[in-house]
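Here is one chain, start to finish.
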Amino acid sequence: MKRNQIVRDFLSNEKEMPLHVVYQQLKGQPNEFKDMSDICLASKNEANQCTSMEYLYANGLFHELKLLMEKTKYATNKVVRKTSRIYQVMYERKTLSAKQLKPDSPAKYIQSVNRLKINDNEYSLKILRDLVHIYCYFDLHQYGRIGTFNQSIKQNLLYVKDPLLYDLFESRLNEALFNYHWKRNELILSRKYGYQLLTKTNNQRKQMDIHNVLAQGYLFESYEQAMNHVSIAMEMAKQMQNERAVYGLKNFTLPFIASYYQRTEGITSEDKAEQAHIALAENDLDKCIHILEGFDELTPFQQYYLGRAKQDKHLLRTSYQRFIEERDDYFYAKLPLEALNALDQ
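Its structure:
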């Protein structure tokens, strides 16, 4: 049966087929995204509409998601309406300008989903709310707070009966665990989730994000492995014409890893802090210090750069404490610790 015939059958049937049944017929086909998008946008059944929003979001089909959110924004069904509202928050967080890497107002997004009245038996809504918390606390660098929501999602997933929705949510949980274990410096676990996700997802945007994190995860082990993941992520970003991802990789991930390994020939960055990092790598300590001392406040990363440039143990200790106490970032806390150990030798 031709795929467009499957779509026609779905549209012409009086009783709407469950989305997961149609998905099994279209899964992995060359026109899967186009055909599934048509079906998602045509769905009238409440359960299908909720699963459709997740399918479109999970596969990076944000234009189609926006159309479906507009259609369901004022739905008479309360669950559909609340679901639409949460995807609106997720959509806003994902669609930023090219040079904006983090949303301006994660706290506002948290408040927005917390205001929704979600009943105890609305398991999918509870999962979506927890996912918003995870993403926002990640944006706020409060990595330690993510663990509780991961556990909550695991418990609520047990009550999700729709097989397609279950798989999509499980993939999102695994992505959260991939990032969480990276920040906990549990790299074997993190990579297990990362490589599983790469084999399971067809979403290039997600694959690119995973390669970006894997690149950083190899920072202390292998320049070649790290740069291989950067190259793959960059190639994907260019293929998708994703300006924001290209900007982030070119101005942050690439110069950061290159500077750590002091392999900065031809490497530049528009970001002032990474310019200081490049100067540090090239042993231009005065330039590094001059740039960083012009900042009103320093992040733990910037304190680390300045501490290394000045060989200042107090700055390095403060950077280490802030990585642990403010961010629960046990992975990047290794940077100032490594510098302190080098000074002690």
